Structure prediction request, 496 residues.
Amino acid sequence: MINLKEYEVWFITGSQHLYGEETLKQVAEHSQQIARGLDSAKQIPVKVVFKPTVKSPEEIYSICQEANTAKNCIGLIAWMHTFSPAKMWIGGLKILQKPILHLHTQFNRDIPWDSIDMDFMNLNQSAHGDREFGFIMTRMRLNRKVVVGHWQDAEVLEQINTWSRAAAGWHDWQGARFVRFGDNMRYVAVTEGDKVEAELKFGYSVNTYGVGDLVKVINEISDKEIDNLAAEYEEQYAVVPSLRKGGDQYSSLREAAKIELGLSAFLKNGNFKGFTDTFEDLHGLVQLPGIAAQRLMAQGYGFGAEGDWKTAALVRAMKVMGSGLKGGNAFMEDYTYHFDPANPLVLGSHMLEICESIAVGKPKCEIHPLGIGGKADPVRLVFNVAGGPALNASVVDMGNRFRLLVNEVEAVAPEHDLPKLPVARVLWKPYPDIKTGCAAWILSGGAHHTCYSQNLTSQHLEDFADIAGVEYVLIGKETNLRQLKNELKWNEVYYR
Ligand code: MN
Prediction:
């Protein structure tokens, strides 16, 4: 359900009429080559579309207007091959609603020492043309990504890759619909928030449906569909014998399949990109959705448990950003600690709903009592998660603004079997160390729910926060508490 190749980034070159036809022809040729180069670069997951050189305020205004309404345009890459007087850009930039990356590059990598003359200098002057462009965006207080270097440089391509993924995640949020079944868990603070402000700021809407509306759809699922999906479960997972066809709990597996099919149909019919549920409002549902939430997330849907719509939306955005990359993105909760000073760890998990996309090996499909909610035992996938660099991200509602909080972590492969733990789990060490990392997270107001990512870096999320225009706080290798506390205080003033 996510295909980044549908998205376009428009490559726009600024110049002016001053230079005459011949120079402008060369500008156009060079721009086309760069746009083609970026479009065919393996690192860049979206289409890069060449647009004719803009040379006047009218042309600039018009391309910005066109970009705003183009359905598949997720952002602009702007480059000033020559000198493009930046007052020409004011009108266009004022109305531009798409993210913008300022590519500070030049067509040639090297100076042609033997042949360089004033004609060459007049054509290849982005070193100062781009400064003029940079000034006006700074003067207008516009967020943008600035990438510096030759357009074939691997690091430059990687930065464009990262930004275009962030822009795709942002584009996906605009007009996105998320459904909540029930409210949030009673008395819980951090999963609350201002849904009106979120729609204004982030572009997605969150609306509630009675769980009975879902139950109605679930009850319309045919026996044949249920049998087929139950068979798929048996094929894809190590299903415990009691749940298999002929086993004494097979009806529970069929019930779980029925819930997944109903949820899937409800999401498709309503054009939703994610959902939340809560164990406190399951009226008419036989089980709390377990395997259903795990598998729907793996298909690309956002999910948040206990009514956590902010995390559901974030999971969706991060799935879009990470599309096609190795590794996955999952709803996550900091669950319990291993405080051994020699090897301190966080165990991340949830009651059920960890996305299958981060599983290592074939997940086991099991059934166990839940202990809360008072419903039948839910079916769930149980698995471990590979070691390696990862991160946790959380959107916090600070009352006057949203904060995107990220903690870089190092996941470690499990050294123990955990035979009695009936849920998917991850072990990680937060950066810079467990005490500083957790203190920083708590001081920043980060939730216990996060989106855990194996394939995004903090740079993706920083670019995303810049595009969204929200506060971004990173807890990483360089974090020290004193500095972080100051940063939070200063941000308080900045966002006042
Ligand atoms: Mn939870």
User: Anything to note?
Assistant: The CA atoms of residues 12 and 51 lie 6 Å apart. The radius of gyration is 25 Å. The chain is about 40% helix and 25% strand.
